[in-house]
Structure formats: structure tokens, C-alpha cells
Amino acid sequence: MHDERPRTAPRRRPRALPAPVVVGAAWLAGSVPFSNLAARHRADVDLRDVGSGTVSGTALYEVAGFGPLAVAGACDVAKGVVGPLLAGRDRPVLGAVAATAGVAGHNWSPWLRGAGGRGLSVAFGAFLPLAWPGTVVLALGLAGGRLRRQSGLGTFLGAALVVPVVARTHGRSGAVAGAGIVGALLAKRMAGNQPPARRTAAVYLHRLVFDRDPGEGAAFVSDRSERTMSTVRGSAHVNERSERTKSTVPSHSARVSERSERAMSTVPSRSARRADRSWRASRRVRQ
């Protein structure tokens, strides 16, 4: 007997997007400066004018608080996923190139005239579909740096470990993705948003390891100390003015007592009134 059931036609796989479209879309998504948009909306501040000029979550937190930071951070992570998802699982090399383009678009945004952040949040999202251990390693490096108050150094150590870790867990494709994403991160650390005052190898090495120019950390600490001291001086001035006000303005009970004393001094006593009446009566009798 022959099977008379109609044969279903094989499903056609959706046509893959051309590689230039994938890379361009990833770069365009990465270039959207969500942190700066949030700072503009909530605090009317351009993050390029804050601190070192880095358009980052840290600068956004300083001017707008945790809420905008959480929203913008989630958007930055999401835009890192765009390129690898458009490339698909069967084109891992294209996914790595698109992920790198997304991080580069964030670091050198055309909407900020080439300025941008350090690309760490975008890298978190880019590693998730490509080689998720890369996200874990970068996050641990950042967390360790935060605990030691050396975020730049912690992030550098995490980035240095990413490539060997993802190469071991995801093979060649993981190594390619790690090399591209980490390369964009480290290149931005060295370039910064402005050239250094002294263009020497030592300065660029310091930028690479600590993500700041030599002496910049000390200047930041000094600035925070000055702001703290000015706050303390302002509080002391307010306390001094309060003490002066208290010393010059008598209390309510003191004012009541003073009025009572004045009243007592102007009103004659009962014995005095009796003596006066007796004197007047004796005078009338004599008359």
C-alpha cells in the first residue's frame, strides 16, 4: 500500500541578513548614548562636561541617581546583544565582528562627536549570546575593582582573562569574539575622550592599566575632600549662627519673668496701700 498522505514541503529558513547590514545595524545600535540621554532628560547635564568627560554609568549616577542608571544600563546591555542576534548562531565570526562594531559604536559615538563610554555594559550584552563566560569574567573583575576602589585596574585584569577563558570554553569562535570585544575596550581606555597632556608611553600605559591619567585619581580624591570640607564648614557656620541667635534672643520664660518684675515694681504692695489709707483717714479726722 502506498502512503497517500500529502507530503509537506520543507520549511524554508529565513533569509540571513547580509553581513554589511548586520555589522552596520550593530554599530548603529551601539552608538545610541543612552546614559547621556538620561542625564540630559533628568538633570539637564551633558556627561561630557562631568569629571573626566566619560559618558558612563558612573557619571550618570553622580548627576541623576540610581533609577536612570538602572534604565540606561539595561539599554546599554541590550544594544550589545543586537549584532550577535542578527548574525545568528551559524555565523559566529560575523557575530564577533558585529559585537565588536557595537562596542566601537558606543565608545566612539557619532552623536557625541566621537566621544563615548568605555563599552563595558555593551560588552556584557555582546558576550551573552556569543560566549557567556566572558560576561562573568568582566563582571567579576569590575566587582573586585569596586571593592578595592580600583575599578580601572579590576576591569583591566578581567579583560586580560577574558580571551583565554572564552577560548577554552567556546573554542576558536569564542577567542575571536573575545579578542575583538576586548580590543575595543582597551583601545578606548588608551585613547580616552581627549588626548593626554603628555603623549608618552608611560602615560598611555597608565591609561591602559588604570583607565585614567597619572595623578587624576589623586585630583579626584582632593576634589571630593574639598567638597566634604566645604560642607562641614557650611554646617559649622549654620550652627554658629544658631548659637548667636539663641544668645541674643531671650527665651520665653525669661521674657515672662522680666515682665512680672516690671509689673511688681509698678504696682504697690497691699501693706503700702493700707498705710496710705490710714494716713489719709487720720488727716481727715484732724481736719
Comma- or semicolon-separated keywords:
73% helix; 287 residues; 12 helices; mainly alpha
Describe the SSE topology.
Blueprint (H helix, E strand, L loop, with lengths): L18 H12 L3 H10 L13 H8 L1 H22 L4 H16 L12 H11 L2 H15 L3 H41 L9 H10 L5 H33 L3 H15 L3 H17 L1
What does this structure look like?
The structure is a single chain. The chain is mainly alpha-helical and 287 residues long. It has a domain of 198 residues. The chain contains twelve helices and no strands. The longest helix has 41 residues. The protein is elongated, with a radius of gyration of 37 Å.
Helix content: over 70%
Largest sheet: none
Shape: elongated
Q: What's the count of strands?
A: 0
Which stretches are poorly predicted, pLDDT < 50 over at least 5 residues? 218-236
Element order: H for helix, E for strand: HHHHHHHHHHHH
Could you tell me how far the N terminus lies from the C terminus, measured between alpha carbons in angstroms? 162 Å
Q: What is the helix tally?
A: 12
Oligomer type: single chain
Instruction: Round the Cα radius of gyration to an integer and report it.
Output: 37 Å
Please, what is the average pLDDT?
82
> What structural category do the secondary elements indicate?
mainly alpha
Strand content: under 5%
Sum this structure up briefly.
The protein has helices at 19-30, 34-43, 57-64, 66-87, 92-107, 120-130, 133-147, 151-191, 201-210, 216-248, 252-266, 270-286.
